[in-house]
Amino acid sequence: MLAAAHLVRRFGGRTAVDDVTFEVQAGEVFGLLGPNGAGKTTTLRMLGGLIAPTSGDVRVDGVTMDRASGPRLRARIGFLTETPGLWDQLTVADNIAVYARLFGLDGVATAVERSLRQFELWDRRGDRAALLSKGMKQKLALARALVHDPDIVLLDEPTANLDPQTSRGVRDLLLDLRRRGRVVIVSTHNLDEIERVADRVALISTRLVAIGQPLVLRRQIFGRRLIVHLAAGSAPLADLMAIAERTGAQDVRRDDQGLSMVLDDPDLGAPAIVRALVQSGASIRAVFDEQPPLEDVYLRLMGGHLEQAGAVALEP
Amino acid sequence: MNISRIRTLIGKELREFRSNPAAVLPVVILVIVCVALPFLVLVVIPRVTGESLGADRTIRSVVALAARTQPHLARLPPDAAAEAFMFQQFLLLFLVAPIVGAVSLAAYSVVGEKQGRTLEPLLTTPISTVELLIAKVLASFLPSVVVEAAGLLVYAALVLVFGAEGVAGALMSARSFVMVGVVGPLASLVALQMTIAISSRVNDPRSAQQVAVLIVLPLVVVLVGQVAGAFIITTPMLMLVGVALAALCLVLILFSAALFERETILTRWK
Predict the structure, then answer these.
(1) Who has the most CB within 10 Å: A102, A154, B72, B172?
(2) Above 0.90 for ipTM, yes or no?
(3) Nearest 5°: phi and psi at A19?
(4) Hey, are the CB atoms on A85 and B266 less than 8 Å from each other?
(5) What is the C-alpha to C-alpha distance for residues B191 and B8, in angstroms, rounded to an integer?
(6) A29 Cα to chain B: minimum distance (Å)
(7) What confidence tens digit (pLDDT) does each residue in A207-231 have?
(8) In this predicted model, what pLDDT tens digit does every residue of A19-53 receive, in sequence order?
(9) Which of A9, A54, A87, A142 to mutate: most B Cβ within 10 Å?
(10) What's the pTM value of the predicted model, to 2 decimals?
């Protein structure tokens, strides 16, 4: 539904975004990750029709974003910009109402009330925006971006300045948008949060470094390790390691909790390993797949060689 | 072009001005000065010193020159003719007031958008560049014209009360109307277009204000030149100036629309 094809954006001699390509479907939450200055905001601005790519194009349902189609396509997009950008002298309600009118909504008063109630700002509707806390300003900016119930939602750091409870609310909002079939693209540094909601993530550092489901990225980078926690009184670890290796496990390691190992196909291999270990005297307390956080994937990918080697296709 | 979006944005700007009276204050002060200064010079000082305007040889000769193109001056007694002529010249201040006022409001508005980073979210809406520019220009233009009109009403009322007999009538001429009703607002629009166009191309929009206010200079030259008797601007000449300003305004609208790059605003305004 929203496609970026070979997007390049240069500012003078500096290339901010270089050959970035991806597609995001309706009902998908897509995370855009990368260090500061990686080109995330520039990419979002191109997707939102705020700036034109130097080359490549952005398509919404097959329609290329350009000067002529821009206003029509922008009407379908809700864009939370990097900074809230509120009119401080206007009231909370007016800040929303102006946008509702600019987007051509019929029932402006109803839309404003719905938005403000959704973000728990209805009681502050008569206050000047300048009087709001940072978190409330961010919520108001979110309410403004969604007031016209857009098909496509672009969010640049949506949880910046928000307390954990409100961040949780944003996460629920993203899930709700996904349920309602919206295209959602989120640029963020909050890896823990994006991992909980994103169907796929793209890691960019000017160029696309990697793209895929967080789980698939994790497996591609770290493999799929099986963790076996042992209770006290088990057979000696050295014996159990040898048994695991004989049963097909590779890279078997020990730690103070038990063993970890790599299996070619953990879904098939894990029961056999567990059976063999138990028969050899292991008291098993827990067996599970290792889940390194997305942060580890991010740091590994952004850390060096893959970045220099170019994009890694890790689509499932 | 979507009139509703333009109206929405103008409404927003006017609400912002209303909630921050300091933004409109320079225009109000300027208009008060425009009203007060002529009365100080033409009514208060002559009465205090006992010297009439008509007694001044230079003024008499300039009035005689002006009377050739404005017969109603010739029909007034010398003192009243001199007073009417001078009140007419001071009307030129009402050309300067809306220009300076509107440009100051526009600069305030643009600087406000810059400081609050409010333009980027605005550009995410379907509003087109031309709609945005028209709304910005009109939102600064309308309050300054309203304040100017109010000042003119007060000016006319004071001339009626304190001026010599026949002076108010001489002032209510086609020439005065063209000057303050046509040339003034058009000059103000031209200055505004320049402000907005330049604002989008410079890092600091306040420098646009400094450039746009330069349009005041030719008006000052006209004011000084007329009072000194160097030349007299006739009504047809004023109408020609009006037509030229209207044409310039149209060209500037197109020019500024082409010049106003959303990207420049987003990437260069830091």
Answers:
(1) A154
(2) no
(3) 55, 55
(4) no
(5) 23
(6) 20
(7) 998 898 887 777 777 777 888 999 8
(8) 999 999 999 999 998 888 889 999 999 999 999 99
(9) A87
(10) 0.79
